[in-house]
Amino acid sequence: MPNIRPSSDFRNKYNEISDFCHKYSEPVFITKNGRGDLVVMSIETYEKLVGKFELYRLLDEGMEALKNRKVVPAQDVFSKIEKGLPE
Question: Is the distance from CB of 41 to CB of 24 less than 8 angstroms?
């Protein structure tokens, strides 16, 4: 269940919101005039989220390379690494 708080809580209960974000690794949704306005999360949670996006991007790139047959057999790559040759 999302944690939704009014903007006045962000001003008046910052430490409570911060503690929640760190303890549960969950975002807090801040409303302004009854409408969604901001999402607050810990830096650790943000970094994990960004890391997932980067992983998905790299997986997408790999799947596209596979689809377009722009791949190199793993053994060839390992042989080049062992010989100190550039990829």
Answer: no
